[in-house]
């Protein structure tokens, strides 16, 4: 663990900006958005809460060329690797799901793999909460514990730096002069902030009656009726915003650029809420009704992933609550699934 | 797989011949630019450049490595374009994907292959593999059905099988317009499953056809005393990436593209949408 004074943090980011394209959260209208780092601008917000965009967007691009003509290998439009600063614990949990999907098995995904290998993640503790934060119900802490290269905990006059990987260790080594030793008082201060934020998340969980993940086991299969899901899907407009904003959603659609002479296949994010998601060429659709598709979304997150990976594919980031124009609230759905809400 | 570094890369492939099988079904003989092998029951993604790709299980003998055949019913956007292809056109393939038929497990067993309609395509490839290992099988039976004699895919070849020694074959069509069109059974496929001279508790059955046909054949075989662990079905799902990542073909905790498309009935029977 090290201490990085505030002015040194900016120097470090400036240095990293040579090797990486650095994205860092900036506040606009009270919401944080990942923004390109500029050396003459230090108005970024590293702590507070997660950004509006999910971290996955930097690793599984919303639109990407995956093959071109009949060339072997991966199409390469090689650019500088990315350094993402200020990612929060909820987003880092998303990597557990994305890594499982794209890196395990016989076939790994070369595009995602490259991003994971080359990009640098400098995460940060949450210093506050917003109303939709409920990470602790999903077994997380509001500060990163793994899946980062470096983690920053902002305290007065700077931040404490924890190393989470060899890549992170190298960054510290190469910039030794910027880092200082951590004092006992600084450690204590970090703990105080962490304790405070945890209490705030707990308050959210209590206020909204959110079940803890231990109580969700087998609840999808126990609540599989059309009656249950018809009610939950009543206001859904099938926009797919919950999918695109979700740090764990990984589904994609392959489609061809409509030019036979210069063939290119692209992939774009897909949404399991859209009617034809599972439809086959002959027209048969295993999930023709909207409530079936909403149930499928929850089944994937709270039944499929617990069974194949041992974790719920939800991070408690609360983005889908904010994004949903129909006001479908995952906290309430989970409460009813667990049988603790009406 | 020509390129392990990118499972989305497409192998350039030449169309050698287009065979019109029935009004709605064509077979393409394809020659990939590089040698390509597959196990029976595995599938490929066939690309029509600029249009898209469709998942298809080859209908040819897996032992042939220089060319493959795919047999395609015209049902959607991509297959419509596939039907417009001509000799010498360029297409692309990816694969092979999925687990295929576990034919090693068939050794020493009585094996019944039940095909319906367009399901004859994968089934023909399977039968070639089984013919090649027929001395290792205790018994091989084939049951096949189509809607009408005019829709009967690979009709001449399948009628040829009825004369093959050591092979128990019955064919059926749902209906005929006039007598003389067809000298075999008339009725649904389930009507030619009653006379299977096998040990029902031990025999294995492979069923491949439209979902409704597989549903009723499964029901029938279970009634006859078959073990649900001995039934192998081909699941028709929206298989796109072929590698269990794009999410479209999930069945319970499986992906049809990666864990199937051939599934043992007992492993998927608790999913309510398998026949859709």
Question: Can you tell me about this structure?
Answer:
- The complex is a heterodimer of chains A (342) and B (276).
- In chain A, β7 and β8 form a beta hairpin.
- Chain A has eleven helices and ten strands.
- Chain A is α/β, with parallel strands linked by helices.
- Chain B is of the alpha/beta class.
- Chain B folds into two domains: 11-97, Translation factors (Elongation Factor Tu (Ef-tu), domain 3, Beta Barrel); 103-234, Rossmann fold.
- Chain B is 18% helix and 31% strand.
- In chain B, the strands form three sheets. Chain B has a seven-stranded mixed β-sheet, sandwiched between helices. A six-stranded antiparallel β-sheet of chain B has the order 4-3-6-1-2-5. Chain B has a two-stranded antiparallel ribbon with strand order 13-14.
- The interface between A and B is large, with 46 and 44 residues.
Beta-strand content of chain A? 15-25%
Give me the side-by-side strand order of the main sheet of chain B: 10-9-8-7-11-12-15
Question: Which residues of chain A sit in consecutive blocks of at least 5 with pLDDT less than 50?
Answer: none
Distance between the termini of chain A: 46 Å
Radius of gyration of chain B: 18 Å
Number of strands of chain B: 15
Give the distance, in angstroms, between the N- and C-terminal Cα atoms of chain B. 30 Å
The computed structural class of chain B is alpha/beta
Q: Which fold name is given in CATH as the topology of the largest domain in chain B?
A: Rossmann fold
**What structural category characterises the helix and strand content of chain A?**
alpha/beta
- CATH level-4 homologous superfamily of the largest domain in chain B: Nucleotide-binding domain of ferredoxin-NADP reductase (FNR) module
